[in-house]
UniProtKB/TrEMBL annotation:
InterPro entries: OHCU_decarboxylase, OHCU_decarboxylase-2, OHCU_decarboxylase_sf. Its EC number is 4.1.1.97. It comes from Kitasatospora gansuensis. Gene3D superfamilies: Oxo-4-hydroxy-4-carboxy-5-ureidoimidazoline decarboxylase. Pfam families: OHCU_decarbox. It catalyses: 5-hydroxy-2-oxo-4-ureido-2,5-dihydro-1H-imidazole-5-carboxylate + H(+) = (S)-allantoin + CO2. The lineage of its organism: Bacteria, Bacillati, Actinomycetota, Actinomycetes, Kitasatosporales. Keywords: Decarboxylase, Lyase, Purine metabolism. GO terms for molecular function: 2-oxo-4-hydroxy-4-carboxy-5-ureidoimidazoline decarboxylase activity. This is 2-oxo-4-hydroxy-4-carboxy-5-ureidoimidazoline decarboxylase. SUPFAM superfamilies: UraD-Like. The keyword Amino-acid biosynthesis does not apply.
Length: 167
């Protein structure tokens, strides 16, 4: 992320356009960004995290698709994207057979659900992500949408915290 305010109250004070840009770096859903922005000012991190949770709860299926569009396929972080590479650090140096299994399971998941498998990958190994993918594959679309909503909230929380922790 670019040179940003280092506290929630400073973030609250930036111009609307800059705020929207910053929020879209956290989550690529314009509806999420607008819902979070509407809750400013934030006096502390907890208020901003609560705004994330409330905004995630309101997202439609289409909004969730917008949010997922900003995420790389598990096992294939976006090249040159430090956030994507950091979040998927658990796949670095993994055996190619395990990566092949992950890619095959991803393809089956995408064919079934019509979107990437989304999981909060921070701190997870390739093996645990593959196990989660296989565990979630039998879900119906509605159940999976709610799980995705929860995973997105966790990812957004991590990104919000990182925004201020990096300062």
């Amino acid at each position: 992320m670019t040179n940003l305010p280092t506290t929630p109250d400073a973030l609250s004070a930036i111009p609307a356009g800059e705020l929207t840009e910053t929020l879209l770096e956290i989550c690529s859903s314009p509806s999420w960004a607008a819902a979070v922005a509407e809750t400013r000012p934030w006096s502390d991190r907890a208020e901003l995290l609560a705004a994330n949770e409330a905004a995630m709860a309101k997202l439609t299926v289409e909004d969730l698709a917008d949010a997922m569009a900003g995420h790389a396929r598990i096992g294939k972080p976006k090249a040159g994207d430090a956030t994507s590479e950091r979040e998927q650090a658990g796949i670095q140096g993994v055996d190619s057979a395990l990566l092949d299994e992950l890619h095959e399971a991803n393809a089956a998941y995408e064919a079934k659900f019509g979107h990437v498998f989304l999981i909060c990958a921070t701190g997870r190994t390739a093996g645990t992500m593959l196990a989660a993918l296989r565990e979630r594959f039998p879900n119906d679309a509605a159940t999976e949408a709610e799980i995705v909503r929860g995973e997105l909230r966790k990812i957004n929380d991590i990104r919000i915290n990182r925004l201020f922790d990096a300062a």
